[in-house]
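Page 42, continued from yesterday. The earlier attempt failed because a stray header line got pasted into the input along with the sequence. Redoing it now with the clean sequence only.
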Amino acid sequence: MQQRLTRVVSADGAVVAYASVGAGRPLVYVMGWLTHLRLSWELPAERALYEALAQDCRLVRYDRAGCGLSAAVARPASLAFELEQLAAVAGTLGEPFDLMGTSMGVPVAVAWAAAHPGTVRRLVLYGGWARGGDLSPAPVRDHVLGLVEAHWGLGSDVLTDIFAPDADRSTRAELARYQRACSSAATARALLALSYELDVTDRLGQVRAPTLVVHRTGDRAAPVAQAEVLAAGIAGAELALLPGRSHLPYAGDRDELVRVVRRFLGLPLPRRRADGLTARQREVAELVSRGLTNREIATRLGIEERSAEGHVERIRLRLGFRSRAQIAAWYGARRDLI
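This time it went through. Structure tokens are written below.
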């Protein structure tokens, strides 16, 4: 799949970058704290999530102001501004859409669905909360905000460990670099502060769309109790609790999350081969089993080292492994069948 990047202007003149991938009924995806449409598409784990969601539908994502490909503006972060940016993107669709919010995108999606019931076909809320002030005690929130503001590098490392504890060390390092590339420290702090300030508890009862609340039971960034608040406050909402500790939807057991979401949206479950690998990925797996490094694999196949690294990461994610050693052992066991 290839994503299509474009821009739209919000009501107050902010330029919002958005991306579309796939074709069919729209699924608008309100992302979490920090975003970057281009860089997220280059992260194997995150791209795999979007490609899985975009099968048989049109997945639409956007960068909020000050993040990724959307320029910073003087206007401070607020729920009203979040809704204006979502309105600009929704206005390009011209039809009702499915709406999925993740993390900080959850209260934004709730507020939108409550205010614009005719636009939302189905609503999915993953890893979110109804009241940001309940995420952690005030001293902890103040410490994290201060860390992000004073030392963005260390702050991104700490938050990555909280957001994706199930990811391996190299993936967490890449995610920390990704966060720093998404925005400035000032924007990161402002949006994180907004996350703690958002409170949509009084809007839950106004949501009319069929709703699925999905949460991982060991999520360290958003307590599972907040998922229970969301599900209890929205009439008829389904609550799906999945095992795992990772807050980021593409970390941990991504495939099970995708299956739960697609089933609720009435979309076919993802199509995949017996082992889920492409011909090139099986070729790379064979070279991993022979002990070659990413650089040696790249030289052997005539590709960039970064491409080789991406293939290895996609193989690991598709097979549910945590290390190259597991890939090598898997390939060795299946050698006569491949």
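Notes: Residues 13 and 297 are 48 Å apart (CA to CA).
Reminder to self: strip header lines before submitting.
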